[in-house]
Here is the input.
Amino acid sequence: MSTLWPRIEPLLAKVQKPARYIGCEDGATTPRHDKLDDGDTVAWLLAYPDTYEIGLPNQGLQILYEILNERDDAVAERTYAPWTDLLTEMRAAEVPLFSVDTHRSAADFDVLAFNLSSELVYTNVLEMIDLAGAPVHAADRGDDDLVVIVGGHAAFNPEPLADFIDAAVLGEGEEVVSEITEVLGEWKRSGRTDRVDMLRRLAQVPGVYVPSMYEVTYHDPTDDDPIGAVAAVTPRHPDVPPTVDKRTVADLGEWPYPKTPLVPLTEVVHDRLSVEVFRGCTRGCRFCQAGMITRPVRERPAEQVRTMVNDGLRRAGYDEVSLTSLSTADFSDIEPVVKGIIADNAAAENSCDTLTISLPSLRVDAFTVGLAGEVQTGRRSGLTFAPEGGSWRLRKVINKLITEEDLYGAVESAFSQGWSRMKLYFLTGLPTETDEDTLGIVELAANCVRIGKQYTNRASVTVSLGGFVPKAHTPFQWFGQNTHEELRRKIGLAKDAAKKAKGVQVKWHDAAATTAEGITSRGDRRIGAVIERVWRNGGLFQEWGEHFDLSLWTEAMDAEGLSLDWYVYRHRDEHEILPWEHLTAGLHKDFLWGDWQDSLAEAGVEDCRWTPCYDCGVCTGYGIEHVVASPIAPAGGSQGTGQDLSRGGEVPVEIMRRPTPAGAST
Amino acid sequence: MKLRCRSTKLGKVRFTSHRDAARIWERALRRAELPVAATEGFTPRPKISFGLALPTGAESIAEYVDIELREDAADVDLDALPERLSTALPTGFDVLVVAERHQGTASLQEAVTSVTWELWAPDLDRDAHIDACRLLDADVLELERERKGKRSVDDVRPMILEAQPTATDDRLVIRLATVGRALRPAEFARLAYPDLDPVLVRALRTHQWIDCDGQPEELLPLPAGLDARPVEVLA
Here is the structure.
């Protein structure tokens, strides 16, 4: 076992952006050859199936990297998908997939563990398994081969990858990586024999799903159901659980990771310090898989946020920190934390003149804009909001309860404070969406421009339009996705309307990519053959416009006798067994179905952090609860509290320390 | 106070770009908590400036950066600075010398008139290097090259000031002029080793020279006894 660097080095001279492949980041593990060469240590190769620039900032991967390397019985290194130019060179020179830390061959590791943040990277997963020298099909792997594991948000429906992976982890990895390490360590100590027995034991680790331990049967095709829905998913052994539950850490405060964030030597997408302020989101936006599968809300203690920011900035030398979460302005202690960070920097002996605090995923209200104003130094150029739906009716359907007044108030506040460009995110192809809703998007944007013109002649609004892909474990999992043609028509409608609206620009996501994403997001195991065909036909980096090709996907579907109509465009009914029904994020199926019906009735639900529990099943089912940093809700954000909070200030809500079942009095 | 630093870029980090290196330095200066002056305006930037860009993939023991400290800053211990900065920089970036840069000294880009490189490759032996030295015998050396989409043919002979193999014969030492359109080491390799893919020719920048009454003088010489030679990176 040794480094491949002398063989890799000459290849790097021939490719674009070679710094992607050198590692050397601050925060990277000092190579521990002795440990890796020790037969009993479990060696993890943590893989991100997209480029280094996209993958390096991924916090999940960085967290697991540290936790594993802190263990005596594990070592972890990282790898990212080599870009096509290096892939060609590697294939020609017979250089296998390597780690960027010590440039060792993937075959020197025990586990190849992928972080899946989206579905279009699946063909890259196959490419990387193959490049690692392991059989692509899990069934063909022997005792000496890598154990392939996936995790991350897309792993909540791992069925399309079932043929290629040994296991999928549902939910948060902080605790379960250690439990997996113990199972694999025992397997190594016993001489690495009987891989099937090892997999069976992995299947008993809570949160770990081993596809090969379950048999999936399908209904025979009929005229009504020409493909045949899932008939049953059955464990193959009595000790394999019939349902796999997600993992959730109860208290984020116990996991102050990453402690030594990786600082890349070359430019990456989020080139700044990231500190995660909370997990979970209780806004209940029905299209949002992340919000559904990461419940409940667990806020990091405010004091720990400050410490992590201060230590991280000093250690990394960054002048920008991003406070990350699904909706950062909802952090209950956001204002004091932000003010504290600014004060800490000012009080430091060598304060940073250029410190910027960025708050991604801004809520749409004036308070939030005020907060953004406090933290943004320098030129105020652009601000982004996500109303998602073009009318109040549609926003009730998707439960994104932003009123027009909220939006106009936020926009007016922003223009009046010196911002000149707004970006508004919308989805199209949502349930019940009419052309009126689509045109409403442009109307909203035009009204925002009108408000802006009162403050600056340069006022402009960019509408960013994405096609909606229904996801597993959300109330919209039963909804038939809009067809490729319908999405294109709606995008065209918005584009045409925007031509007449001065100051409004429309940008859109390729409807073809939305369609391909739809194939994999709610696919079953039969979609695996489609992914394999696309991969074998050269379909790599499908997230990248220059490489994406819908015909690769449609041709593969045809070749497998599968149809877009059935997999993507079809509405499911309540009684259909969904391919991921044996996997759960804790949300009761009847809650999700009820929420889907409420959605169709245009009824919204409140933010359950500040209002009584409506028993989605997560807190009660797992015996966990919302953890908030402050007993006082943050100012702003009328949703949920039912109050007009647009002017900021304290919100006298009663905090629900222990959620009570629906119907119970508070 | 203004400072001039001479540093290395050796090993794996040779694959970072000049732009990457600038960002690496900015972060390192903040990590070292050096009181660097900032520019005025909407987006203040630290007042640091870099010399001639090192091509991505080339190594160096003669990289220069000028740093301006805040006027109100307490005096900085120059002797301790190389170690303080090297600790804050990634492996492969080491600060060798720091000197005070006096008022009126020309900027790095203006001052440097020539640069010394060592070139080598596994496939290049003594004879190849001796052949390469024959380029000096030519009166005119035409090279077709492209910049910003424009093709041109230039006589690059005047840019080659010296060429000779090292004592060990495995490398070629060349001094190239930098005034006007510079001749890059990869461009030199195309002329000198026509049978070899120029990307396979390794380059190490060893000196940057200023002109002192017609004689080249090292910008910041290395202190006696300091060995900055690179060690081949294997892991």
Observations:
- The first strand of chain B starts at residue 2 and ends at 9.
- Residues 110-218 of chain B form one domain.
- Chain B is about 20% helix and 30% strand.
- Chain B has two domains: 2-105, 110-218.
